[in-house]
Amino acid sequence: MLTSLPRSNAALAARDLAVLWHPCTQMHDHETLPLLPIVRAEGVWLHDADGGRYLDAVSSWWTNVFGHRHPRLVAALKDQLDVLDHIMLAGFTHEPALELAEELVRVTPAGLSRVFYADNGSSAIEVALKMSFHYWSNLGRGAKQRFIALSGSYHGETLGALSVTDVALYRDTYAPLLLQPLFAPSPDAYLAEPGESARDVATRRLAELRVLLEQHAAQTCAILIEPLVQCAGGMRMHDASYLTGLRTLCDEFEVHLIADEIAVGFGRTGTLFACEQGNISPDFLCLSKGLTGGMLPLSAVLTTEAVYAAFYAEYASGKAFLHSHSYTGNALACRAALATLQVFRDEPVLARNRELAARLARELDPLRDHPNVADVRQTGLIAAVELVRDRATREPFPAHERRGLRVYRHGLAHGMLLRPLGNVVYFMPPYVIEPEQIEMMVRVARDGIAEAVR
Ligand SMILES: *Cc1c(COP(=O)(O)O)cnc(C)c1O
Predict the structure, then answer these.
(1) Chunked mean pLDDT (size 10), the chain, 454 residues
(2) What spacing in Å lies between the alpha carbon of 27 and ligand 1's midpoint?
(3) Alpha-carbon distance 110 to 347, whole Å?
(4) What is the distance between the alpha carbons of residues 453 and 388, in angstroms, rounded to a whole number?
(5) Residues 257 and 223: beta-carbon distance below 8 Å
(6) How far apart are CA 298 and CA 271, in angstroms?
């Protein structure tokens, strides 16, 4: 405890609201919405200052893959703290940074052989955008200056990352400040025409992308994709054949493929990386969130030897990638990431996740017939329920009614942290969740939905 002042939910919330400005929050909401002080966390549980607890069904913004304070991560960090904290990574190196790079190269799709660190997901996207642009420039192909992103995509909130994000709520206000990417239609299976399968949608969207590339490839550096699941854009999912086709198009038109696995990497979709399901290797792979098991901020951009080689020259050639962040390759964060990868290596995480995913599917099944549910979809341990006003027409609830917020409130009142994205109620639990807790999680959500749609 930091001070001897009273330690209740109300007291801590009042002190917070006097000094803090919270992320992704209209602070005015907290005039009526309780702000929850968490004083301890363990496994799937968050404990507040009044003795209440909440099951972290969203893995603390999708970072916390192995539950809070996983013993192996805690032990690794304590050990690291006694040896080396943080040093700058220019001119110096350390074992956690290089061992993590070796491990990442080993476990990611073939062909990715170079690791560049940053300290959060958005920064990883900035690195990939700049590297791709700079690669073409170093090759004398300076006309390649634009990016293609998919509709409904989310790649972060710094200006470059926000430029290639297509979520109006986050992007529109800042539009005058942003790069002008091309947006290709997402292979989102929710947008299927009557009678179309997810695979059909992927095929149709690839044909549309081909037309876009025929017109713009000469000016395009790279295409960005969140493989299999567009998460912040509403947990919209697509068929893995889109990835395979996208790789083929990128090769044919000489455009880089940037795979943003910041949310879906590290076992979330059923494979260690989502790209594996399309049998592809991207030119850039962006990782963060689950990378440190949710312990510390860290991100990594993996790329190919071909990209690395385009920057490797005499200093005077001016080809170097002179990008840095102060905390690049932080030793503690790298050590947490190494411990996370060790858990994947030593424990049957993916096999257990498949069992948990099957249980989640069973629990969600009854919601498919709900009059205000247009879609129940799932990829591995990500599941989402699309709430609508009218199931037949898929007419959405007006955003200002904030139906999802009602589910959130109901969840908190029943010991469950669900944080819907607009009208999409989703589940992204830590992998240490027990099957009975999955049942509880879905039950609370179902009751919350019943109240929210009234
Ligand atoms: C969260 C996220 C980001 C941004 O990461 P931050 O660490 O929040 O900056 C980028 N891409 C995807 C797919 C994400 O889910």
Answers:
(1) 82 98 97 96 98 98 98 98 98 98 98 98 98 98 98 98 97 98 98 97 98 98 99 98 99 98 98 98 99 98 98 97 97 98 98 98 97 98 98 95 97 97 98 98 98 95
(2) 22
(3) 23
(4) 9
(5) yes
(6) 21
Q: How many residues does the chain have?
A: 454
For the chain, residues classed under CATH 3.40.640.10 are 74-346
Which residues does a 6 A CB cutoff place in the pocket of ligand 1?
A: 120-122, 125, 154-156, 226, 231-232, 260, 262-263, 288-289
Instruction: Locate 170 and state its tokens.
Output: 């986050």
Give residue 134 CA to ligand 1 midpoint distance, Å: 22
Which token pair is 79?
């050990």
Are 173 and 238 in contact by the 8 Å Cβ rule? The answer is: no
**Domain 74-346: top CATH class:** alpha beta
Q: Across the strands, what pairs with 183? A: 149
CATH 3.90.1150.10 is right for the domain spanning 36-69+349-452: yes
Q: Is 43 left (phi over 0), alpha (psi -120 to 50) or beta?
A: left
- What pLDDT is attached to residue 4? 77
User: Ligand 1, atom 6: nearest CA belongs to which residue?
Assistant: 121
- Six-digit token pair at 16? 């917070």
Intervals of CATH 3.90.1150.10 along the chain: 36-69+349-452
Indicate which atom in ligand 1 lies nearest the CA of residue 61.
Answer: 1
Q: Which two tokens stand for residue 52?
A: 């209440």
